[in-house]
């Protein structure tokens, strides 16, 4: 039962970063303070998702096919989050 819950949470975490495309259709999401806050929040969420899914896979022993897919996708998101966060810091300096 615990493995199914962890897999469900990781699956939802795999879908959430795509909601930024819907939010960015609004004019307020393109303006300066809101855009940086929103992108920064998504970066933090993607980093958390990658770490959470990897810990659930390794320590929680939730090892099924869907969890393997979630781990790969969320780890790619986490890598992109590190890259995007570094890019934001570099452009801010």
Tell me what the structure shows.
With 93 residues, this protein is mostly helical. The protein has four helices and no strands. The longest helix is centred in the C-terminal third of the chain and has 28 residues, at 65-92. The mean pLDDT is 92.
Quickly list its features:
mainly alpha, 93 residues, 4 helices
Bin the helical content: over 70%
Termini Cα gap: 48 Å
The backbone outline, from C-alpha atoms, is elongated
Quantity of strands, as a count = 0
The string of secondary-structure elements, in order, is: HHHH
Question: What does this entry show, briefly?
Answer:
By secondary structure, the chain is mainly alpha-helical.
Helices and strands in order:
Elements: H1 2-15, H2 19-23, H3 32-58, H4 65-92
Helix pairs in contact: 1-3, 1-4, 3-4
């Amino acid at each position: 039962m615990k493995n199914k819950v962890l897999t469900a949470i990781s699956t939802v975490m795999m879908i959430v970063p795509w909601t930024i495309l819907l939010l960015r259709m609004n004019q307020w999401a393109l303006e300066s303070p809101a855009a940086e806050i929103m992108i920064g929040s998504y970066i933090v969420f993607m980093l958390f998702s990658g770490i959470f899914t990897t810990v659930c896979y390794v320590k929680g022993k939730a090892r099924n096919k869907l969890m393997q897919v979630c781990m790969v996708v969320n780890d790619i998101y986490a890598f992109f989050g590190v890259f995007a966060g570094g890019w934001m810091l570099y452009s801010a300096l």
